[in-house]
Structures are given as C-alpha cells and as structure tokens.
Amino acid sequence: MELFLQIIVFILGACIISFLKVIAQDYPNINYSRRSMCDYCHRILRWYEIIPIVGYFIVHGKCSSCKKQINFYNPLQEFCGGFLIYLTYHFNNLSYLPLILMLIVLGFADSFYGYIYPIFYWLSLPTIIWHFSKVHLVSALLTYGFLLILNKIYPLGLADIEVIAILMLIFNLTTVLTIVTVACFLCILKFLVNKKRSFRFIPYLTVSTGIIYLIFSFKILAKSFAI
C-alpha cells in the first residue's frame, strides 16, 4: 500500500510540474480552455500524448503528425520535478513544497520570457512562515541591501536578488552560498557547451536548489541506513 501511495505521489508531482509550466507560459493571460498543441504544426494533442513522461515515449519522442522531434527536456523536467516532490513527501519535508513550487514557476517563466511576475513570490509564504527565524530575517535583509548596492555597480537583475533574499529567509547563509555557487557553475557549464551567455539566472537557482535538496535528502537516507 505504501509503495502504491509513493507511485501516486510521484505521478501527481509530474502532473503538477506540467501544470506549473503551462501557468508560467500563459500567465497573466491564462486560458483555462486552451488545449495542448504541437509546438511545430499546432495540432491539438491526443489525451495519451499529454500524459507526463509516458506520453513522450508513447509517440517515440516525435509528433505523430509532423514527425518533428519533441524536446527531451519536457519529460526530463517532469521526471525531476515529480521525483523532487516525491522526496518532500518521503522525508516528511512538505514544509519546503511551497518554496519548490515557487522556484519551478519562476524558473519556467524566466526561461521562457526573461522576466517573472512577483505575485508568484507569495507561493513561498508557507515555507517562510514555517522556517521563520530572526537570524534568517536579518541575514535576508543584509543580503538584499548588499546586493542592491552591488547592483548599481554590476547589474545583477532585481528578480535574482529578490529570489536569493527569499532563500535567505528559509536557509542559512552557508546553504544559500552553496546554492548560488552551484547555480554559477551551471551557468559557466552552459556557456562552455553552447558558447552563449545567458542572463536568466533564476532557472539555474531553481535547479541548484533542487540539487542541494537532493544531496541533503540522500545524506539523511544514508544516515538512516547507517543507524
């Protein structure tokens, strides 16, 4: 029964990721009656083609109409997001789920358009309240102020600063520095591969936060086995 529940949570997580991607892509002009279409020929997709992860493999990674290759990032994102949400359930860390959802929406939005809507910051409020401490608040305010000053000299992006400040409200300084460092490393790696400089930093912050969370979760799992 527990295994069945875990599978359901993973599938639900993958569906949530797919839904958040649509929200990020359509907001603020969300059309609730919009049907999913092929990015190339704009054919309305059949029900089995929009099943998270599985749908990609059913059609062998190609549109059944125009035969164009579907981006493998789609099922990969759904798998990683579903697995991340599953971990929050498995390790009883649901307090971090609102933050994860916020980062995913912002990451998709910044990736699509290069800007985000601050209204999505409110998604992280339950996590902020749950992990609130005066130390985190002071650290967040100092970090926000310092980065604003630095932004006048070296343009960083106001949204990037605000997201980092939100992370400071939840995590300690060491964790946030690790997240930012990993995000910078991913930026450099992407540049070395594509030879194209990217100024959209929030997607990298989202991925790096997920990586740090995964490492933290597996450390807990390893300790439990050691005991």
If you had to describe this structure to a student in words, what would you say it looks like?
67% of the residues lie in helices and 0% in strands. With 227 residues, it is an all-alpha fold. Helix 4 packs antiparallel against helix 9 and helix 6 (134-153) packs antiparallel against helix 7. The longest helix is centred in the first third of the chain and has 25 residues, at 2-26. The protein is globular. The mean pLDDT is 84.
Number of helical runs? Answer: 9
Task: Give the overall form.
Answer: globular
Mean pLDDT across residues: 84
- Please give the largest β-sheet: none
User: What is the chain-wise order of helices and strands?
Assistant: HHHHHHHHH
Low-confidence stretches: none
Which bin fits the share of residues in helices? 55-70%
Over the alpha carbons, how many angstroms does the gyration radius reach? Answer: 19 Å
- Oligomeric nature of the chains: single chain
Helix vs. strand class? mainly alpha
The termini sit apart by 25 Å
How much of the sequence is in beta strands?
Answer: under 5%
Q: Could you tell me the number of beta strands?
A: 0
What topology does this entry show?
Elements: H1 2-26, H2 54-58, H3 73-90, H4 97-113, H5 125-130, H6 134-153, H7 158-170, H8 173-194, H9 202-226
Helix pairs in contact: 1-3, 1-4, 4-9, 6-7, 8-9
